[in-house]
Amino acid sequence: MAKQHAPRFLDIVNDTKTRVRECTVADVQARLEAGETFHLVDVREESEYAAAHVPGSVHLGKGVIERDVEKTIPDPSDEIVLYCGGGYRSALAADALQKMGYENVISMDGGFRGWKEAGLPTES
Q1: Which residues on neighbouring strands pair with residue 22, listed in sequence order?
Q2: Inter-CA distances, 119 with 12, 29, 112, 122, Å
Q3: CB of 112 within 8 A of CB of 38?
Q4: Cβ(30)–Cβ(120) under 8 Å?
Q5: Residue of 40, 43, 84, 92 with catalytic role
Q6: Can 84 be counted among the known catalytic residues?
Q7: How many CA atoms are closer than 13 Å to the CA of 52, on its beta-carbon side?
Q8: What residue segments make up the domains of the chain, in order of their start?
Q9: How far is it, in rounded angstroms, from Cα 28 to Cα 31?
Q10: CA neighbor of 27 nearest in space, from 92, 81, 94, 79
């Protein structure tokens, strides 16, 4: 069951989604299976990431991504796919990274919840 989010939060997310590129869980899985090179970044809270995450992903929580992204991904032309629990926080983080000059940022719609619902592998 999806979380019930506050209306003003949803307003911000919906506005943000007009500015960011999104992809599906299936898109990310296909790219991973094809061996494509990109940064897969989990923007959820550290405790969420520690409990389970998409194999091969790195953690840069939404609360610190702007501060720490340049250490982890110094090249703003690198492709980055962000995910969170359902696709809202990752869209907000994608918007922030674009404002920082990152050119190839994508938010995975459906997030980790969609990944698990698709029966795809996780690790902790």
Answers
A1: 107
A2: 30, 11, 11, 9
A3: no
A4: no
A5: 84
A6: yes
A7: 9
A8: 13-117
A9: 5
A10: 81
Q: Which two tokens stand for residue 54?
A: 């998409």
pTM over 0.85: yes
For residues 112 and 85, is the Cβ–Cβ distance under 8 A?
Answer: yes
Quote the CA–CA distance of 96 and 46 in Å, as a whole number.
19
Phi–psi pair at 123, nearest 5 degrees: -140, 160
Q: pLDDT of the chain along its 124 residues, tens only?
A: 456 889 999 899 889 999 999 999 999 999 999 999 999 999 999 999 999 999 999 999 999 999 999 999 999 999 999 999 999 999 999 999 999 999 999 999 999 999 999 999 999 9
Q: Which CATH number applies to 13-117?
A: 3.40.250.10
